[in-house]
Structures are given as structure tokens and as C-alpha cells.
Write a structure and sequence with these properties.
Blueprint lengths: L4 E4 L3 H12 L4 E4 L7 H5 L3 E2 L3 H7 L2 E4 L4 H8 L10 E4 L5 H13 L3 E8 L11 E6 L1 H11 L4 E6 L4 H27 L7 H16 L2 H13 L14 E3 H17 L5 H15 L4 E3 H8 L5
Parallel strand pairs: 1-2, 1-4, 2-3, 4-5, 5-6, 7-8
Antiparallel strand pairs: 6-7, 9-10
Helix pairs in contact: 7-8, 9-12, 10-11
The structure holds NADPH dihydro-nicotinamide-adenine-dinucleotide phosphate (NDP).
NADPH dihydro-nicotinamide-adenine-dinucleotide phosphate binds next to α1 and α4.
């Protein structure tokens, strides 16, 4: 028989999590501030807890999925006694530092803690495309892995509780900038009287799809650069992927001018051109992954 699980927080995501656990056959206890959000789950077999404390006491493992970490604390603090000897998996989105702080708080309450980042939307939770990132002590992950797999593929990233939220927010950052790029390009394409968002997007999707294939090679260059011993013998051939900086700069200037001419905001390209000009002024002649990442960092950890 499947392990009992409790879910605290039945917003859009919490309801999807509880629904996936029920579908996988886990005895599921649920609690939410607005109790009516549990109705449908209760109809499917979930047990409604009268308080967060009752939810924690009902299962060895509780998932928390609320608005933010302050809300987590406000909900869990009054029930802190119920955490002792139990496991808490926090699936509320927050920063790495918040996760590390929450782990300390949970340890102080005698609870095992994992932090998680859900790479899914409510509709895809529990389906093959969904995955969830986890960090915290590996033995806690191992102990609950089978249960967590009901939500989506469970990917363990490391012992530092902060790494799952770091990767989560980095993945969301890439998505955000991709959508920003998408809307920027649609604004440009539709500035033309014969342009249409739909027709343009038919070209954009295969273009972006093929461009994502370049990322692993860039990533390999970045990793090789990170691994290189700055005091050791000169690194071999250097980055495998390199383009003349002058060509990249000229192309970026064209993107800036074309956006302006089309009556589309071009702030991003103003900054991109300025940053590439800085590289040129520093004597850099090639556009590479490691150099690009280095220049994004405001400090080296
Ligand atoms: P919702 O807005 O649907 O749900 C918010 C939840 O927080 C509800 O359970 C709400 O309770 C509760 N809440 C808010 N304030 C308080 C409070 N002061 N006291 C007690 N409970 C409170 O958000 P989601 O379910 O969509 O998101 C939850 C988390 O999941 C977020 O961290 C989000 O980033 C993350 N997530 C969401 C995804 C999505 O696509 N939706 C994707 C990946 C992650 P009540 O019902 O009583 O208002």
C-alpha cells in the first residue's frame, strides 16, 4: 500500500499535487485556509484536515504549496510541535536563501526538510512531461522518492537546500526571457502591414528549436572554463564555439536599429550593444560562452 501524504495549500498547484497523489493511490490528507477548495479532492477520497496541525499529524510526509515563504511560516509556525519526527517538502516558490533559512527552521522543529521546484503547470502535474527539482539531505530524498515520483519525474540536485530553488528560478528566468524575446519579435514582425503573428510564429518555433541545439556546446565551453586551473598550464584550444565579436556586434546593432525603425522598444538591445562595445574596448575579439557568462556575473562566488 502507498505511503500516506498530507498537502497543505490547495491553490491551483496544491490541488493538482493532491490530485496526482490520489490518482497514484496515496492516502491523502489536505488542508487549505479556504476550506471549500478541498471539496472536489474530498469527493475523490481525500481526508479534510481541520487545521494545518491536523494535516501534519496525519502523515509522515507533508507537502506545502502556498503563496510564498512568509505564508508558509505563518501557516506552519502555530503547528510547529507537529513537525517533530516528520518530513516536510516545501514546494512553494522562493529564493535559495529562503530555502536555506526554512531548512534551518525545520531542523530546529525536528523535521526532515526538502526544498522543491515544480517544473510543471497544474494541468501537467503527474504527467510524463512534468518534473520536480529537489534539494536537501539525500537520505530524505531517498526516503520519499517513490511518493514524490507521483508528482512528476523527481530530480535530486544536491544537499544544499538552496540549489533546487536556484535552478528553478534560473529555468524560469530563461523561460521569461524567451517569452520576452517572443513578444519583442512579434511586435517587430507585426509592425509590417503584411506581417501576422501567426505566420511569423510558424517560422519562429522551428528557428528557436534548432537554436536550442547549440546550448550544450556552449555549456561545455562554460564548464571547461570553470574547471580550468587559472594557475595551471594554459588551457588547450579554448572555447569550441566562437564567433568574431565584430560580426556579433554589427548584427546586434542591426537588431537595435531595425527595432527602432519599426517603432518597437529596443532597451534590451541598447544594453546588449553597449556591453559588446565594452568587450571590444577591452581588446576581446571573439564572442564566446565563457566570456559572456563572466560578464554577466557581478561577483564570483
Ligand atoms: P494560488 O494563488 O492558486 O494559491 C495560493 C495558495 O496560498 C492558496 O492555498 C491560498 O489559500 C494560500 N494562501 C495565500 N495567502 C495565505 C495566507 N495568508 N494564509 C494561508 N494561506 C494563504 O497559487 P498556486 O497554487 O498557483 O501557486 C502556489 C505555489 O506554487 C507558488 O509558490 C507558485 O509559484 C508555485 N507554482 C505554481 C505554478 C502554477 O503554474 N500555478 C507552477 C509552478 C510552481 P486560499 O485558498 O485560502 O486563498
Amino acid at each position: 500500500s502507498k505511503a500516506p501524504v498530507s498537502v497543505i495549500g490547495l491553490g491551483d498547484m496544491g490541488r493538482a499535487l493532491a490530485g496526482a497523489l490520489l490518482a497514484a493511490g496515496h492516502p491523502t490528507t489536505v488542508w487549505n485556509r479556504s476550506a471549500d477548495k478541498a471539496d472536489e479532492l474530498v469527493a475523490r477520497g481525500a481526508v479534510r484536515a481541520a487545521s494545518a496541525e491536523e494535516a501534519l499529524l496525519a502523515s509522515p510526509l507533508t507537502l506545502v504549496c502556498l503563496l510564498d515563504y512568509d505564508t508558509n511560516r505563518a501557516v506552519l509556525e502555530p503547528a510547529v510541535g507537529a513537525l517533530r519526527g516528520r518530513a516536510l517538502v516545501n514546494l512553494t516558490n522562493g529564493t535559495p536563501d529562503e530555502a536555506r533559512e526554512a531548512e534551518k527552521w525545520a531542523a530546529g522543529a525536528g523535521a526532515d526538510y526538502l526544498d522543491g521546484g515544480i517544473m510543471a503547470i497544474p494541468a501537467t502535474v503527474g504527467t510524463p512531461g512534468a518534473f520536480v527539482l529537489y534539494s536537501g539531505a539525500e537520505r530524505h530524498f531517498a526516503a520519499h522518492r517513490e511518493t514524490l515520483e507521483a508528482l512528476g519525474a523527481a530530480k535530486y540536485l544536491g544537499a544544499d537546500a538552496g540549489i533546487a530553488p536556484l535552478y528553478d528560478l534560473a529555468l524560469l528566468s530563461a523561460m521569461d526571457m524567451m517569452f520576452a524575446g517572443f513578444f519583442h519579435s512579434v511586435a517587430m514582425a507585426t509592425s509590417h502591414e503584411e506581417g501576422s503573428a501567426g505566420g511569423f510564429t510558424e517560422l519562429l518555433v522551428p528557428w528557436l528549436t534548432s537554436m536550442t541545439q547549440v546550448m550544450p556546446a556552449f555549456a561545455a565551453d562554460v564548464d571547461a572554463d570553470l574547471d580550468a586551473d587559472p594557475n595551471g598550464p594554459a588551457a588547450g584550444a579554448g572555447p569550441a564555439l566562437a564567433q568574431g565579436l565584430d560580426v556579433v556586434l554589427a548584427g546586434t546593432q542591426n537588431m537595435l536599429r531595425a527595432a527602432r525603425d519599426a517603432g518597437v522598444r529596443a532597451d534590451f538591445f541598447e544594453r546588449a550593444v553597449a556591453e559588446l562595445e565594452e568587450r571590444a574596448a577591452d581588446g576581446v575579439t571573439e564572442y564566446t560562452g565563457p566570456e559572456t557568462v563572466r560578464r554577466l556575473r557581478t561577483r564570483r562566488s
